[in-house]
What does this fold into?
Amino acid sequence: MTRIAAYLQWALKAFAFFTFFAFALNNQGDATLRFFFGYAWTAPMVLIVLAAFGTGLFIGILGMVPRWWGQRRAAAQARRAASATVVADSNLPGNARSHGL
It folds into this structure.
């Protein structure tokens, strides 16, 4: 069953690739992107779409960075707390183990 699912995933990825490739081939015509103050950029449509996608990706990653840093900080604190607990548990007599409560 997993082999069939893997083939279906591959077929879906191939379909998506060829669909986007056909979209790029159909939009090779020049397009003009007009900015403020009379500035304009004329380029193939596919480059403009790719630039917009890349800009959105970059802005999304920048928006996620503070959350990533906070999660890394929380994970480091949890690791330090867990290692302190292990040191405290090593003082148990004989073969006694902490039950975790």
Strands lie at 30-34, 40-44. The mean pLDDT is 85. The first strand starts at residue 30 and ends at 34. Residues 1 and 7 are 10 Å apart (CA to CA).
